[in-house]
Specification:
Layout lengths: L10 H5 L7 E3 L2 H10 L3 E6 L4 H11 L2 H10 L1 E6 L4 H15 L7 E5 L5 E5 L13 H14 L1 H17 L14 H13 L16 H14 L2 H16 L13 E2 L7 E2 L2 E2 H18 L2 H18 L9 E2 L2 E2 L2 E2 L7 H7 L2 H11 L25 H16 L6 E2 L2 E2 H18 L2 H17 L1 E4 L2 E9 L2 E5 L2 H17 L3 H17 L33 H16 L2 H13 L11 H11 L3 E6 L2 H12 L6 E4 L21 E6 L2 E2 L6 H9 L5
Helix pairs in contact: 4-6, 9-10, 9-11, 9-22, 11-12, 11-16, 14-15, 16-17, 16-18, 17-18, 18-19, 18-20, 20-21, 20-22
């Protein structure tokens, strides 16, 4: 018989609906039950593409005997960290404070009936190994400790709440005036941690660090920092040639388990690819390197083929496992490749992907990565080989796909797809972004209690859960990108409405910055105000950036004031070297406002100028072309109709005279001139 997860929208929760564990979703009813029974809560947080979540489920949660102990001793609650990032943030931080160790998934926390954690960890094996106790033994010990040590636990909970409160940023007079010092310090730290052989930063496991790579590209363009640009471009090239990139189907896996980008953790997440797609587009615009264009095409192709729903929204992730094995879908035996290709194709493929060398994966298999460049005349043979291998792979059992639509991750992909569409002049990519944006606005932007309210997640016809800081900030960013790709006044109005919600429902008026949850969110043991980037950018960093950019378009001083208050709040944090890429991007544009380029003229000629500007790496420019005679535009966008294409270029309060000559515009932009 299914437990109480069967009616949830989360595929991760549904994966556990047939467990013998009496799982419940996080809800007032589950918490009330724990209080009524005076029983501790076993909280398990994971997500559907998580390999070790599957391992723990197979070992323990599907086992009748283990489930009987869980049901006897605890109220058992399952949470999808992707639907409830508020809970995940709180209990990941608590786990680190309690144990002194990094968190991860599955997260296994033991809570009092009030929701206060008193013990926890991540993966626990069914039987003792890896230096960890067996899960049943652990359950018995935790339950006995809870019964016998209530007073000690209460005292620990007081200290934990104080420690959680201490994680909140505090305004600091010592931070002084905002300046470029943190940007220079971050640049130096990246140089120190850079792997000059393989690209990337630090040892294995290696993550893409998209925010830091984008920062380096901007340093190269803004300051002429050649070394910064080379670090970014080399890393992006090594990643594109590595096994972290799917050489047959496109798209990136989560991270590499080695320092060479060769063998990935095979799950594919929408958000990673949403951040990498515009970065590869920018790398191509900055360098002209064909590899970066092919890689961007591969990402966009994979997203449109496998990750966009018929309704328009983008799905969340692809599992690492298929048929019970991680990576099984992606790897090859030499015999299988030889059987599919003719002799000429195999010779080229073997040289390019290293099939003539030693296997690089388990059980005498290869995971494809580029080990040798090919002369141009062999590209046709390689493409034929790629098509044959891809077609054969499509016949395998595919990894599972998490089909829920998350507002925040969709917003990142809309922004990435629209940006890449501009850079490469790909209207079909722009159409994909538009379909997703229309879906979000139609389905997750709802009227409630007399005002518009954004929701966080959708699946199977059901949208629910109040949206978080990231959902609102990322969606404003997506709308700003869509305005540059395909100006519609309703998108500007939507962005302004979301910004107003940020200020009314998330902003800390007294302390600055934005809380992760709304002011009327359910009361939890802590209310985070996150500033550091994690796998996705910091909501506070993105909020500060997009509010400044929105103010550039509509002149509303409230947006700039909220952004400045956010940067001042995190001023002390910015002095630390790592994890601040989003805030640093906002700081860059606070110190040097972006150029606003408004185009007017005959629509066909305007599109030519737009395409030229988009294919030029201009990280500090916003390029908009509102339709002629558009009503109700902000003053800075309201330009007269002209017989020839004309550009108005402004930065802050300073503007150039109108420019009607393309070469003159190029010269002015290359020199950074605004007066």
């Amino acid at each position: 018989m299914a437990n109480r997860l069967a009616t949830e929208t989360s595929p991760y929760l549904q994966q556990h609906a047939d467990n013998p564990v009496d799982w419940q979703p996080w809800s007032p009813e589950a918490l009330a039950q724990a209080r009524e029974l005076d029983r501790p809560i076993l909280l398990s947080i994971g997500y559907s593409a998580c390999h070790w979540c599957h391992v723990m489920a197979h070992e323990s949660f599907e086992d009748e005997a283990v489930a009987a102990v869980m049901n006897r001793l605890f109220v058992n609650i399952k949470v999808d960290r992707e639907e409830r990032p508020d809970l995940d943030q709180i209990y990941q931080t608590a786990q680190q404070l309690l144990t002194g160790r990094n968190g991860g998934w599955p997260l296994t926390m033991f809570l009092t009936p009030k929701g206060e954690p008193f013990y926890g960890g991540t993966y626990f094996p069914k039987t003792a190994r890896y230096g960890l106790p067996g899960f049943v033994e652990l359950l018995e010990r935790v339950a006995a400790g809870y019964a016998a040590q209530r007073q000690q636990i209460e005292g620990q909970n007081v200290q934990l709440r104080q420690a959680l409160d201490a994680t909140l940023p505090k305004p600091s007079a010592a931070a002084g005036e905002l300046d470029g010092g943190p940007i220079a310090a971050a640049r130096a730290a990246l140089r120190h941690g850079y792997d000059a052989v393989n690209g990337g930063f630090g040892p294995a496991p290696k993550f893409p660090h998209t925010g830091e790579l984008a920062l380096l590209l901007r340093r190269a363009a803004g300051d002429g920092d050649v070394e910064a640009g080379q670090m970014a471009l080399t890393t992006l090239a090594r990643m594109a040639m590595g096994g972290i990139y799917d050489q047959l189907g496109g798209g990136f896996c989560r991270y590499s388990v080695d320092e060479r980008w060769e063998i990935p953790h095979f799950e594919k997440m929408l958000y990673d690819n949403a951040l990498l797609l515009p970065l590869y587009a920018d790398a191509w615009a900055a360098s002209g390197e064909p590899l970066f264009k092919r890689t961007a095409e591969g990402i966009a192709g994979w997203v449109r083929r496998e990750m966009q729903s018929p309704e328009g929204g983008y799905y969340s992730s692809i599992d690492a496992d298929s048929e019970g094995e991680e990576g099984r879908f992606y790897v090859w035996s030499r015999a299988a490749v030889e059987a599919l290709l003719d002799a000429a194709e195999y010779a080229v493929a073997a040289r390019h992907w290293g099939l003539s060398g030693s296997p690089n994966f388990e059980n005498n298999h290869w995971h494809l990565r580029v080990v040798a460049d090919l002369p141009a005349e062999q590209e046709t043979l390689l493409e034929a080989a790629r098509c044959k291998l891809f077609a054969a792979r499509e016949g395998r059992v595919h990894p599972g796909r998490d089909g829920k639509v998350l507002t925040s991750w969709n917003a990142l992909m809309i922004e990435g797809m629209a940006h890449a569409a501009r850079v490469f002049d790909r209207p079909e990519w722009l159409a994909s972004a538009r379909r997703a944006l229309d879906f979000l606005q139609r389905t997750l932007w709802r009227q409630a209690d007399g005002k518009q309210r954004l929701l966080a997640t959708y699946k199977d016809g059901r949208a629910h859960l109040d949206a978080y800081l990231d959902d609102h900030a990322f969606l404003i960013g997506a709308l700003l990108e869509m305005l540059q790709a395909d100006f519609r006044s309703e998108d500007l109005a939507f962005a302004q409405a979301l910004a107003q919600v940020l200020l009314e429902d998330f902003a800390d008026v007294d302390g600055g910055g934005f809380f992760f949850t709304r002011h009327d969110h359910e009361a939890l043991i802590h209310r985070p105000k996150p500033g550091y980037d994690n796998a996705t950018p910091s909501g506070n960093g993105v909020a500060a950036l997009v509010l400044q950019r929105l103010a550039t378009l509509d002149g509303n001083p409230a947006w700039n004031e909220a952004a400045a208050a956010t940067l001042r709040l995190f001023g002390a944090q910015l002095q630390s070297a790592g994890g601040n890429a989003s805030l640093l991007h906002a700081l860059e544009e606070y110190l040097q406002p972006p150029q606003l380029i408004v185009l007017s003229g005959p629509s066909a000629e305007v599109r030519v100028w737009q395409a030229r500007l988009a294919a030029t790496y201009l990280p500090r420019a916003l390029v908009l072309a509102p339709p002629a005679q558009q009503k109700g535009l902000p003053q800075v966008l309201d330009k007269p109709a002209t017989a020839a294409v004309t550009a108005w270029v402004c930065a802050g309060l300073t503007c150039l005279p109108p420019i009607a000559d393309w070469n003159e515009l190029q010269r002015r932009l290359a020199g950074g001139e605004t007066d």
